[in-house]
Structures are given as structure tokens and as C-alpha cells.
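Sequence in, structure out.
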Amino acid sequence: MKYPVTVYGDPLLRKKAKEIDKNYPNLEQVIENMWETMYYSDGVGLAAPQVGLPIRMFVVDASSGADEEPELADFRKVFINPEIIEITGEEWVMNEGCLSLPEIREDITRPDEVAIRYFDENFTEHEETYKGFAGRVIQHEYDHLEGILFIDYLSPLRKRLLKSKLLNISKGKVQPHYKIKIPVNK
């Protein structure tokens, strides 16, 4: 089942997500639905808050980066209750987009490397370090669990220039090829 993607303006995207345990209801199905939603939406990562679930989980498929980083050919992982241990390395700029911010892409500076502790879909604990494209996607998705969007890294001037686009997203005046959940403005 494809979930609608929660877009900018929904307060859930600005809240810190909650940890879950292995007894989370229908966890296997939720993960499968997240994969299906991410692939249908042409994403490389998807965090649970982006599909209306306030839980600490995201999925990443960084295999699209295998042309430049061959080790990513089979990179497909589920991250449950992740905790970033350290972010290091040289900062580099990459043009980022986000399914929750359709039609917006911006150059974002992030460090090259991330060390992270997490549980996989079987609740097996891992502690690993990722660099390059995978490291960047993981940092982007992790930010969603903390209530941070990639636009938060932009200068105040750049944010002001995006104001009308952000307002249009929050009002549902965008038409991505995937289904979105328009925020209820009270």
C-alpha cells in the first residue's frame, strides 16, 4: 500500500519522533508500505514522519549512487531507533530534494561521514559508519526524525526566496506524481 506523503506545513514534520519496540503494530507491513511509497515516489530515502507516522524509523536505498560509488550497488536498509554517534569528515555540497518538499531542490552542505547506531527490521543492533552518498541520505532522513528539514540549512535570504513555494506546498498547490497529504490549516 502506498502511503500519501506528508508535506511541508504539517506540524508532524517538525516534531521529534518516538522510539518503537519490536512489538510495534504491523511493523513488517509498515516497512513494506514505506518501501513501496518511496519507490513509487522516486525517492532514495523515506522517514516515517513523512508518511504520517511519528516513529523513529526510516528506509534508505542508496543503490542509485552506485555509478560513482560501486559499493552502494545493493545498499537497501531499514533504520529503526537510530542514534547518530558522530558526524565527521569534509563538508561537501550536494543538490538535495525531499518528497515532503515537492518541486524544491537546493544545494546543501553536509559533512562527508556519519557514524550511526540503529536496529534493522529484525531488531538486530548495528553500529556502522557511512560516507559519501549513503552518509548524506542517512543524515537527511535522520533529520526528519528530529523535526529538521533540509531547508533549515539554508541562509535566511534563500529561505525568504522560497517562501511562496513553501506556502504553495502547504496549501496543496503542487502536483507531484505521487499522492500527498495536504496539511489541515486551522
